[in-house]
Design brief:
5 strands, alpha/beta, 47% helix, 147 residues, elongated, Trna Endonuclease, Chain: A, domain 1
Length: 147
């Protein structure tokens, strides 16, 4: 490879990287999902049905107010779960992670999960990682819907 070819190779690398990034952004760009127009309680019941359809047992939607940060209780393969459901039109922050973390202990569950029709903020992802809370974002929800 000669030095005169180097700028051309760099140009091609930049173009390929740019195209890859655009495809990534398009995938992350919000494509309409059937749940996007749902109200909170409807979304909770929809998620409960999805969990049941995907092998969870003893799926129970908690009462609306005073649920201690947990919307759904479920079990799968002897592992107990506490779910916080968020159907919003913007990214989900740390509050949802904090709520399910506290609610998980209140209900004596092993795993806390936040499930949403959106994506999570970077602070929410960091906190969830630290607290061992599982985050199911829009892409994961879409996969569940498709199964």
């Amino acid at each position: 490879m000669t030095e005169t070819m180097m700028p051309y190779l760099m140009f091609i690398l930049v173009i390929v990287t740019g195209i890859t990034f655009i495809f990534y952004l398009k995938r992350r760009r919000i494509q309409p999902l059937p749940v996007d127009e749902m109200e909170g309680h409807d979304f909770e019941y929809y998620c409960a049905d999805l969990l049941s359809a995907n092998g969870f047992q003893d799926v129970e939607v908690t009462r609306g107010s005073g649920d201690f940060g947990v919307d759904i209780l479920a079990k799968k393969e002897d592992i107990t779960y506490a779910f916080q459901c968020k159907c919003y039109d913007k990214p989900i922050g740390v509050k949802a992670v904090q709520e399910v973390y506290a609610g998980k202990d209140y209900y004596d569950r092993m795993i806390g999960v936040v499930i949403t029709n959106q994506y999570f903020t970077e602070p929410a992802v960091k906190l969830a990682s630290k607290l061992n809370v599982i985050l199911w974002d829009r892409d994961y929800l879409n996969d569940l819907i498709g199964e």
